[in-house]
Design a protein that fits this description.
Helix content is 50%, strand content 16%.
C-alpha cells in the first residue's frame, strides 16, 4: 500500500472495519466518552503496554459508513473517495498524529497531503 510506504511503514499492516451507526456510536461512547456516531476511530497498537507484541500491525481503523456517506454527499465526492480519505486520516492517527491544536492540525494536514501525493504517484513536495 503506497500510503503505508510513504510514511515509512511499507511492511506494516492495519485492520479496517466499516461499521453501522450503532457500532461506531458505541465505540465512540466507550472509548472517547462522546455520544453518537462519528466518521472514523483509530485504535493504535504503536503505543501502550502491549506495543512490543504488535508485530507488523499498527492498529485498527473503524469507519462509520453512514457518517462517511453523509459527509461524501456534503463534500460532493463519491463514498469511495470519502472512505479513502478517512482511511488515510485514521492511519495517521494510528501513527500518533492528531489535530487537537492548530499546530498539530497543520502537521497532520501536511502528512495527509504527503500520503495523497504518494497514492497518486506524484513526487513529494
Amino acid at each position: 500500500m503506497r500510503a503505508l510506504g510513504s510514511l515509512g511503514h511499507a511492511r506494516s499492516e492495519l485492520s479496517l472495519s466499516l461499521v453501522d451507526n450503532a457500532e461506531i456510536a458505541e465505540l465512540n461512547q466507550s472509548w472517547r466518552g462522546r455520544k453518537g456516531p462519528t466518521d472514523v476511530l483509530s485504535f493504535s497498537l504503536v503505543e501502550g503496554d502491549h506495543a512490543r507484541y504488535r508485530g507488523a500491525m499498527l492498529g485498527d481503523v473503524v469507519i462509520g459508513l453512514s457518517v462517511a456517506a453523509q459527509q461524501a454527499r456534503q463534500r460532493h465526492r463519491s463514498l469511495d473517495d470519502e472512505v479513502a480519505h478517512l482511511v488515510v486520516h485514521g492511519l495517521l492517527h494510528l501513527l500518533g498524529f492528531d489535530h487537537e491544536s492548530s499546530a498539530e492540525a497543520r502537521v497532520m494536514q501536511r502528512e495527509e497531503r504527503k500520503v495523497w501525493r504518494a497514492i497518486r504517484g506524484m513526487p513529494a513536495a
